[in-house]
Amino acid sequence: MLEKMASGLHTQTLSHQSIAIGVNVVSEESQEITGQPQNEPQQIAYQLLETPRHCAGVLGYQWIRDGFRYFAKAPLIWIVMTIIFLAIMVLIGVVPVVSLLSPVLGPIFMGGLMLGCRAIDTGQPLRVAHLFAGFNRNTGSLAAVGGLYLLGYLAIIVVAMLIMLLSGGGDMFAAMSVETTNDIPTDVSGSMLMVSGGVMLLVVMLLYIPLIMLIWFAPALVVFHNVRPIAAMRLSFKACLRNWVPYLLYGLIALLLMIIAIVPIGLGLLIVMPALIASIYLSYRDIFESVEPPA
After folding, report:
1. Which residue, among 278, 279, 284, has the nearest Cα to 225 in the 3D structure?
2. What pLDDT is recorded for position 6?
3. Secondary structure (DSSP) of 168-222
4. Which one-letter DSSP state was computed for residue 95?
5. DSSP string, 36-88
6. Which of 3, 13, 73, 139 has the lowest CB atom count within 10 Å?
């Protein structure tokens, strides 16, 4: 009798071990298929700071470095999302009237990508669906950020054209449009045109940088902490201004990476763009949030 009971217990133990091994094999196979570890989501509390932090200059490099690490956690998903995003933007851009939607849709897509970065940060898998997550979360506020950006961009163009006209560009174009054009030496007309064009380009650059500062962190503030569009843009500008040193280094490195990425027929953008997107999330977290690890 005792021998039968011992034999039964032994068989039951082997059965449990077989089940445990089977579950482990399934988990490993699932990880191989998805390419991502099946981690349990971490319950991390992210609190929005009242005032953006002032970060050390070296973080401008570290944000980009860690952005590539985020890319390495799900490279295939990042590449697929980048291809889809670029395809959508190109298709919208070829239609004259519809192309005006591009600046409005940009913050919506960026909001979804920020949510994808948060998923990686909390141990959840990144999914292609994250690209469209902004259409299900604070979509109106994200679109408002895009609309304000569009208005700002149009205002910059108008101001630049007015300055160009006031700096002599208007007289130049008027002279070129009448029959007396032949009386104007070619080198003089070319010089006037270059000066006017240079003034316009300089004005656009000087005004566009503050516009970028206004929207840089706005999508993240909207999707993570429900900040209203204008308040989010104001906080974004303040954060960029307080951290101009790390962002100066960040901008130089990002520019160099973009130039290198374009060389191989633009294929490098499929890696650099996701890394830079992740770096925006990482800089946002360092500047705006207090992170409380799970108990």
Report:
1. 284
2. 43
3. IIHHHHHHHTSGGGGGS-HHHHHHHHHHHHHHHHHHHHHHHHHHHHHHSSHHHHH
4. S
5. S--PPPP--EEEE-SS-----TTHHHHHHHHHHHHHHHSHHHHHHHHHHHHHH
6. 3
In 3D, which of 268, 286, 276, 144 has the Cα closest to residue 215? Answer: 144
Q: How far apart are CA 120 and CA 277, in angstroms?
A: 13
Rounded Cα distance, 120 and 73, in Å? 8
pLDDT value of residue 129 = 97
Locate tokens 């445990």: which residue? Answer: 20
The pLDDT tens digits of the residues spanning 116-145 come to 999 999 999 999 999 999 999 999 999 999
Task: Enumerate residues 6+ apart whose C-beta is below 8 A from 42.
Answer: 122, 123, 293, 294
Confidence at residue 266, expressed as pLDDT on a 0 to 100 scale: 85
The tokens of 262 are what?
Answer: 């374009």
> Which tens digits make up the pLDDT trace of 182-213?
555 555 555 666 766 677 788 888 889 999 99
Q: Do residues 113 and 130 make contact, with C-beta atoms less than 8 angstroms apart?
A: yes
End-to-end CA distance of the chain: 50
- Contacts with 152 (C-beta within 8 Å, 6 or more apart), sequence order: 211, 214
Question: Mean pLDDT throughout 233-252?
Answer: 96
208 against 178, higher pLDDT: 208
Tokens of residue 45, six digits = 């509390």
Cα–Cα distance measured from residue 289 to residue 284, given in angstroms and rounded to the nearest whole number: 7
Query: Closest Cα partner for 121 from 256, 295, 235, 289?
Result: 289
